[in-house]
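Translate sequence into structure tokens.
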Amino acid sequence: MPGKKARFIFCRFTRKIRKQTHLTDRITIDPKVCNGKPVIRGLHYPVETMLELLSSGMTIETLLADYPDLEEEDFLACIEYAAKLTRIKSIYRIAS
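Result follows.
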């Protein structure tokens, strides 16, 4: 955005400084992809699966080697997405 200062953060995973972006923009939900589960950039990589791999002890570097079409920011977006979900106070069913 014009007139806004760019924010930079230090990424502890790669030991580099990177420009901060809205990581959750990388998470998409489409009923035609993985039955509407949240996925990374519209690809068939569910956030749920990536979080399970991270929680099992795999590092982002290892996952990047296993999934070469993904980027470090994709995994960080999964973590940020999960963190945002924990802030939800209530979930209501919407009539369909």
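Note: Confidence is low (pLDDT under 50) at residues 1-10.
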